[in-house]
């Protein structure tokens, strides 16, 4: 039987050999959930990283990509596919002077030149993890952050722009003498299908796109202009010059812009925060004790430190390095490229270059000479030449080919052994979740193949690394350390160290503690955000925090991501029954167990709905980012499902009046919301909280239409009763009490 691929857009069956649906023209390829590469329909494993496409992979436009908005199904769940709200960076690149060139050139020649240049620019975009949204003659639009988010999409986009400009200026003849102008902008968009039924395609829409186009239009030939959010998110890695604000069509105020000059660090380098080191004494002591044993007994050891982004893995190893250097040892560090093709042994290449004191500014000849001299200082002449040749291949200093991979492995092992015998050595390998398989296979076997060598390998990875490579945890010499969130006490201490004194300092400390949930990077970003009002974005969280969380959610397998999105509508706590009502999938229980293991959710010891499991988001920002992903239409449908679930499941829904009012209001049902607000006001009044009760009545009156006279009359009457109670309460209070308030100072009523 001929195998078929089902179109995610229209459901039509297509032959696996087809790349586009014969019914509606939609792309049939599938995006790898691990690395984001688009694969042809016949692939069962990703052609870029080898991950199984059936496990968490999806079409770029399928509901399993998290594109899950739509109508309410017959079972009460939510189904369909209307897109997502995404936080992205948009890049516009245009060949300046193209119109004048076209006027005097043959159309075939123009087409050939443009095709080559657009293909080249598209290759750069994809290598940096973006996707080409469309090509419009001499202009290209690319998106970073959809369909797959990365924590550094803004930086990736600017690096891609710099690479495009570099190629254009270096090979000006290939561009027919045309320079490239680029605009880059970051913000929230709608990522959804647009177009006639015969050609509906996924694209991004929103003011961010329009502004990126305006920036490109204002950029001089050969220049890159970026917007405010892009600059804020990438300033640690990119050198900028402030430029004059530009006036853009449709904008009331001039737009602040910056001119991108150059990358200030390698993609494999990471700026390290100066945040005080707090709350990691136990982990630091473990590393120090292990190091002392490795150094004193000359026994190799592998320790893997696992934790989500921002948990402080790199910072911990830097503190540990100070101890290593103080005890006569040295530290060598390597980190895989965070994007682009997985470059074999890139992290090891950094280690080799570092050990040979090779600088980025060294020419090829100088670098090669330094490596040969370093190897000669460690080995006899009879074997140093062969070892240096192999190490040159690993360090990307030579284009030669080794006789086999095992020979490279042996040479790398012998080099590291010699370095450790010369001086006890710690080898820190960061971001192993980005590493190529060849490097991982080399590192896995290093400690077990060595003997009587003081080499300590410290590997850093995200939690998904152990899921993708379970064999790592079974390496005999490996000890895995899970880096947990900071305790409440340590988190509070860190926030106080970061915040300046102020009248509301402790209130800010509490808010940051609750939002950051013990993540040191989030604490740092949120503390700065709370201190600098102009650092706030429209969605209510620092951009860097949002992008880190969004990238982590996009890494989740589709069933788990769907559960997170649906649960975000319910609130910080939710029940398994609400997910079933929302139609979150057939394997909700399995997804919840996996999300607990990933540290995103936790089970409550008790449940407010009998017979149903209650769960809680461990991190309120995760819920916020997930909720922001859903389109408003999808939110309304889900809020209604949740409201009906609570009304039907709670024996007495009255105690949840405020919660129900919220869900009905977000569902767009003003009448139901107003009724529950009045119920909540009654409860507040009975609890001697008349001021809060009056505010609830005001909210209800704001929702009730003018023509609903009966509801408005009841709400005003209830508010009047509460206002009288408030007046009596304040009159009876002693003078100067913080709670005293004259009737004239009360919130004005809404009529």
Q: What do you see in this structure?
A:
The chain is α/β, with parallel strands linked by helices. It has 26 helices and 20 strands. Strands 5, 6, 7, 8, 9, 10, 11 and 12 form an eight-stranded mixed β-sheet that branches. The protein has a five-stranded parallel β-sheet with strand order 14-15-16-13-17, sandwiched between helices. Strand 8 and strand 9 form a beta hairpin. Helix 2 (107-127) packs antiparallel against helix 3. It is globular, with a radius of gyration of 30 Å. The protein starts with a strand and ends in a 19-residue tail after the last helix. The model is unreliable at 54-80, 533-539 and 735-751 (pLDDT under 50).
What is the topology?
Blueprint: E1 4-6, E2 13-15, E3 30-31, E4 38-39, E5 84-96, H1 98-104, H2 107-127, E6 131-136, E7 139-144, H3 153-170, E8 179-194, E9 201-205, H4 207-218, E10 224-226, H5 228-234, E11 238-246, E12 255-263, H6 281-297, E13 301-306, H7 313-326, E14 330-334, H8 346-355, H9 364-376, H10 381-394, H11 405-422, E15 425-429, H12 437-449, E16 455-461, H13 463-468, E17 478-482, H14 488-498, H15 505-516, H16 520-531, H17 543-555, H18 558-570, E18 573-575, H19 576-581, H20 588-597, E19 601-603, E20 614-617, H21 620-629, H22 632-649, H23 657-666, H24 670-686, H25 690-703, H26 709-732
Parallel strand pairs: 8-10, 13-16, 13-17, 14-15, 15-16
Antiparallel strand pairs: 1-2, 3-4, 5-7, 5-8, 6-7, 8-9, 10-12, 11-12, 18-20, 19-20
Helix pairs in contact: 2-3, 6-7, 9-10, 10-11, 14-15, 14-16, 15-16, 17-21, 18-21, 22-23, 23-24, 24-25, 24-26, 25-26
């Amino acid at each position: 039987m001929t195998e078929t691929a089902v179109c995610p857009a229209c459901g039509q069956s297509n032959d696996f050999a087809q790349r586009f649906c014969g019914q509606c023209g939609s792309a049939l390829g599938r995006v790898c959930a691990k690395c984001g590469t688009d694969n042809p329909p016949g692939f069962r494993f990703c052609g870029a990283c080898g991950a199984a496409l059936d496990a968490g992979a999806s079409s770029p436009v399928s509901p399993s990509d998290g594109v899950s908005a739509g109508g309410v199904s017959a079972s009460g769940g939510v189904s369909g596919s209307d897109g997502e709200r995404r936080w992205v960076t948009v890049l516009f690149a245009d060949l300046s002077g193209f119109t004048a060139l076209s006027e005097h050139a043959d159309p075939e020649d123009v087409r050939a030149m443009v095709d080559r240049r657009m293909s080249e620019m598209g290759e750069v975009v994809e290598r940096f993890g973006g996707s080409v949204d469309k090509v419009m003659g001499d202009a290209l639009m690319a998106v970073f952050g959809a369909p797959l988010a990365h924590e550094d999409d803004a930086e990736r986009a600017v690096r891609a722009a710099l690479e495009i400009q570099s190629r254009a200026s270096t090979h000006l003849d290939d561009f027919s003498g045309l320079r490239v102008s680029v605009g880059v902008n970051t913000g929230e968009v709608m990522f959804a299908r647009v177009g006639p039924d015969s050609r509906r395609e996924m694209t991004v829409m929103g003011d961010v796109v329009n502004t990126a186009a305006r920036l490109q239009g204002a950029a001089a030939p050969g220049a890159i202009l970026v917007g405010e959010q892009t600059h804020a998110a990438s300033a640690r890695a990119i050198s900028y010059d402030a430029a004059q604000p530009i006036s853009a069509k449709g904008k009331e105020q001039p737009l602040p812009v910056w001119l991108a000059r150059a990358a200030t660090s390698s993609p494999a380098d990471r700026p390290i925060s100066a945040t005080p080191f707090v709350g990691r004494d136990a982990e630091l002591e473990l590393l120090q004790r292990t190091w002392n044993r490795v150094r004193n007994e000359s026994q190799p050891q592998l320790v893997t430190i696992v934790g989500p982004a921002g948990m402080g893995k790199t910072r911990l190893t830097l503190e540990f390095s100070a101890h290593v250097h103080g005890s006569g040892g040295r530290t060598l560090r390597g980190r895989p490229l965070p994007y682009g093709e997985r470059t074999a042994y890139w992290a090891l290449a950094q280690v080799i270059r570092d050990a040979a004191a090779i600088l980025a500014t060294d020419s090829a000849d100088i670098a090669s000479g330094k490596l040969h001299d370093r190897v000669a200082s460690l080995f006899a002449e009879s074997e140093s030449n062969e070892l240096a040749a192999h190490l040159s291949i690993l360090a990307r200093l030579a284009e030669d080919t080794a006789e086999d991979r095992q020979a490279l492995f042996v040479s790398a092992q012998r080099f590291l052994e010699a370095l450790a015998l010369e001086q006890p050595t710690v080898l820190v390998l960061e971001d192993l979740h980005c590493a190529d398989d060849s490097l991982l296979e080399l590192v896995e076997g290093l400690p077990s193949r060595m003997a009587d060598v003081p080499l300590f390998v410290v590997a850093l990875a995200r939690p998904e690394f152990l899921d993708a490579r379970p064999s790592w945890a079974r390496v005999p010499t490996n000890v895995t350390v899970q880096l947990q969130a900071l305790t409440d006490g340590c988190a509070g201490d860190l926030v106080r160290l970061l915040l300046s004194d102020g009248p509301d300092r402790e209130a800010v400390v509490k808010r940051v503690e609750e939002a950051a949930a013990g993540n040191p990077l989030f604490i740092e970003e949120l503390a700065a955000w709370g201190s600098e009002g102009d650092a706030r974005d429209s969605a209510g969280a620092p951009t860097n925090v949002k992008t880190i969380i969004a990238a982590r959610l996009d890494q989740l397998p589709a069933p788990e991501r769907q559960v997170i999105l649906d649960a975000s509508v319910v609130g910080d706590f939710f029940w398994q029954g609400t997910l079933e009502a929302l139609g979150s999938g057939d394997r909700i229980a399995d997804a919840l167990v996996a999300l607990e293991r990933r540290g995103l959710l936790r089970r409550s010891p008790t449940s407010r709905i009998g017979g149903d499991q209650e769960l809680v988001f461990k991190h309120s920002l995760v819920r916020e980012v997930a909720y922001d992903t859903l389109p408003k239409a999808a939110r309304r449908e889900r809020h209604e499902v949740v409201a009906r679930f609570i009304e039907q499941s709670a024996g007495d829904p009255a105690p949840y009046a405020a919660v129900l009012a919220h869900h009905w209001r977000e569902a767009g049902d003003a009448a139901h919301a107003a009724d529950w607000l009045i119920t909540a006001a009654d409860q507040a009044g009975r609890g001697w909280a008349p001021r809060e009760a009056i505010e609830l009545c005001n909210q209800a009156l704001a929702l009730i239409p003018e023509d609903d006279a009966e509801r408005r009359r009841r709400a005003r009457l209830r508010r009047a009763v509460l206002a009288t109670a408030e007046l009596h309460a304040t009159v009876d209070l002693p003078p100067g009490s913080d709670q005293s308030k004259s009737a004239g100072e009360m919130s004005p009523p809404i009529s």
